[in-house]
């Protein structure tokens, strides 16, 4: 958001815009709906507003702020949905610190939110890729795979994760990213399993796509449904189901092309 434009708005609109940005960042980084409601309400209390309402949907958020006789309503589309709970925790800590620290202006809060949003991942991408591969390989071993299957699974999961990461960064359709990631992981792991001659190839292929399991969205979907946020809960549930379908399609496509169904 342009800082000069932000400074030109009236005080009520400043408050509305900064709370809207806060809600957007929370939703884009994997916060459940109740967390968004509570954090934005706490933020509104920093500015002594007379009226505050927030409506959260799966891909947009609407905020209404009223001070004295002036009421402003703004809406914003939520961008790419990822999972970065460090940013969610940092925003909660930021609001809690602002409450203890006394008066804060909307511009000051916006600058702090910009700093949180611009913060880098706690781990380098190469470390994440390696650890994702090792995690999937570990599940392969737990499921009964041998060390050759572990190696094939680790390589396939790492390659698929990297390809999916690049596609997400390039703003491809989320489900296409899932499909390509599952296909590449299964294809590479099955091909390497053939080369290595492992007897537990199926464990390698099945475990290579486990990084695509939407754990946080699944938890958020159940949490939203149980807490009465039916709109976002149903939308997140459908996203989880679609993810599972596209993972299965990627696996099936890889199995057909590699002849895995007839291997062994």
Read across the widest sheet, the strand sequence of neighbours is 1-2-3
Low-pLDDT runs of 5+ residues are 1-9
SS-based class: mainly alpha
Overall average residue pLDDT: 90
Give a short account of the largest sheet. Answer: 3 strands, antiparallel
Put simply, the count of helices is: 11
Oligomer state equals: single chain
What distance lies between the first and last C-alpha atoms, to the nearest angstrom? 57 Å
Give a count of the beta strands, DSSP E runs of length 2 or more. 3
Care to describe what's here?
The protein folds into 2 domains: 3-118, no CATH class; 125-262, no CATH class. The termini are far apart. The chain has 264 residues and is mainly α. It is built from 11 helices and 3 strands; from the N terminus they run H-H-H-E-E-E-H-H-H-H-H-H-H-H. The protein has helices spanning 3-8, 11-28, 33-45, 85-101, 106-118, 125-142, 147-169, 174-196, 201-207, 215-226, 230-258, and strands at 51-56, 60-67, 70-77. The chain is 68% helix and 8% strand. It is elongated, with a radius of gyration of 22 Å. The longest helix is centred in the C-terminal third of the chain and has 29 residues, at 230-258. Strand 1 (51-56) and strand 2 form a beta hairpin.
Structural topology:
Elements: H1 3-8, H2 11-28, H3 33-45, E1 51-56, E2 60-67, E3 70-77, H4 85-101, H5 106-118, H6 125-142, H7 147-169, H8 174-196, H9 201-207, H10 215-226, H11 230-258
Antiparallel strand pairs: 1-2, 2-3
């Amino acid at each position: 958001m342009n800082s000069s434009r932000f400074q030109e708005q009236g005080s009520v609109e400043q408050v509305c815009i900064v709370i809207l940005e806060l809600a957007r960042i929370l939703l884009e980084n994997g916060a459940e709906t109740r967390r968004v409601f509570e954090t934005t309400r706490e933020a509104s209390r920093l500015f002594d507003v007379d009226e505050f309402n927030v409506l959260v949907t799966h891909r947009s958020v609407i905020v209404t702020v009223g001070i004295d006789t002036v009421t402003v309503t703004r809406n914003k589309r939520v961008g790419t949905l990822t999972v970065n709970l460090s940013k969610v925790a940092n925003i909660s800590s930021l609001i809690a610190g602002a409450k203890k620290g006394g008066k804060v202006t909307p511009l000051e809060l916006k600058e702090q939110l910009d700093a949180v949003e611009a913060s880098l991942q706690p781990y380098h991408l190469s470390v994440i890729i390696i650890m994702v591969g090792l995690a999937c390989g570990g599940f392969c071993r737990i499921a009964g795979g041998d060390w050759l299957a572990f190696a094939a699974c680790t390589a396939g999961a790492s390659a698929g994760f990297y390809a999916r990461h690049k596609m997400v960064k390039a703003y491809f359709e989320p489900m296409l990213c899932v499909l390509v990631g599952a296909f590449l992981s299964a294809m590479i792991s099955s091909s390497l399993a053939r080369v290595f001659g492992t007897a537990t190839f199926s464990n390698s292929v099945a475990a290579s796509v486990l990084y695509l399991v939407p754990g946080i969205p699944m938890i958020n979907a159940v949490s939203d449904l149980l807490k009465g946020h039916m709109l976002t809960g149903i939308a997140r549930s459908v996203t989880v189901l679609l993810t599972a379908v596209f993972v299965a399609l990627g696996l099936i496509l890889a199995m057909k092309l590699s002849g895995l169904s007839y291997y062994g």
